[in-house]
Amino acid sequence: xxxxxxxxxxxxxxxxxxxxxxxxxxxxxxxxxxxxxxxxxxxxxxxxxxxxxxxxxxxxxxxxxxxxxxxxxxxxxxxxxxxxxxxxxxxxxxxxxxxxxxxxxxxxxxxxxxxxxxxxxxxxxxxxxxxxxxxxxxxxxxxxxxxxxxxxxxxxxxxxxxxxxxxxxxxxxxxxxxxxxxxxxxxxxxxxxxxxxxxxxxxxxxxxxxxxxxxxxxxxxxxxxxxxxxxxxxxxxxxxxxxxxxxxxxxxxxxxxxxxxxxxxxxxxxxxxxxxxxxxxxxxxxxxxxxxxxxxxxxxxxxxxxxxxxxxxxxxxxxxxxxxxxxxxxxxxxxxxxxxxxxxxxxxxxxxxxxxxxxxxxxxxxxxxxxxxxxxxxxxxxxxxxxxxxxxxxxxxxxxxxxxxxxxxxxxxxxxxxx
Length: 419
Known about the structure:
Elements: H1 3-9, H2 20-33, E1 38-42, E2 50-51, E3 55-56, E4 66-67, E5 71-75, E6 81-86, E7 100-104, E8 116-119, E9 123-125, E10 131-133, E11 141-142, E12 153-155, H3 163-171, E13 176-180, E14 185-190, E15 194-195, E16 205-206, H4 209-219, E17 229-233, H5 237-247, E18 253-257, H6 268-274, E19 278-282, E20 286-287, E21 293-298, E22 304-310, H7 314-332, E23 341-345, E24 356-364, E25 369-372, H8 382-386, E26 389-393, E27 404-409
Parallel strand pairs: 6-7, 14-17, 14-18, 15-16, 18-22, 20-24, 23-25
Antiparallel strand pairs: 1-13, 2-13, 3-12, 4-11, 5-7, 5-8, 9-10, 19-21, 21-22, 23-27, 24-25, 24-26, 26-27
């Protein structure tokens, strides 16, 4: 009997579902243990990566005394005799004599010997061409090291690289950054009943996850090419095994949709058995979406890859993404475990008994309130399209108006759905 046939014949007992927070912690630890290797990226290609080592400055910031205004660098008391000009990008001669001044531009290096800077708009010229005025009592230039000293740690390893960090790195003198390689992800869509174009009908439904899941994964920092999305894969064990084996060649993470239960055409579990995978998490006590899973495969050379089994119902699949895939990818990229913000419930949300309830909500950021949405069935996407995330109602509880609850965010880009 072949391995694949044996895997089909083996009856798998239904596991006890893991508690939601425990499952989240387990997959984060698994990702962190398999954190992706560090690589050097030029600043122009570092956006969206993660610092693999702390960002430090190569010089004092600023590196030299820098004028904060357009005006006059003066020495001693006025009126002052003009002896030159200094512009940004030049090294000036010292002011060696009291009663002298040079015109200075914003950002220019302050000459040695300067005792004050007089703003241009607060200066006048005397009849003999001297400069007169009263400098403000505050220092009008930035001292070396005012922002940071050479070698000082500015941001820790694990910080996501964004445009602000890139600008800071450039100001520190860096041309490249040491970052974690971005995860490569693939998606396998299971289900003979799925259509990939046109409206649903005649017993077949339109695949909503094939187009959507790669976009979610990119928001989590993954690289997903069009060729990495495969399906619908035929509902047979050999087709499942071949598709997953092929996807694992290049991917660090393969997400699958559907097939996470043990029905007659649910082949994911025997496929994982055939490929020698081990479960990190197998079902989670969360509603919707509990038949989710994360499995790990380790090659002979130690290379680690992961398979995230997402339920076939669209909202349940997204619950699996925020529950298992988000912390896994944080670990793989060497980022801290995502911390959940809190919001105040504007309306009640029922509990789900012994299960964690992740309820779709829209967040009013000005008021700090979470508003439950309609159209939130596990097969529905209308509520998801309006949502900012999921309110977390813990097992054995219900959410009452005024309760402060954690909110599991959707992976939105900066500025999306800001309210």
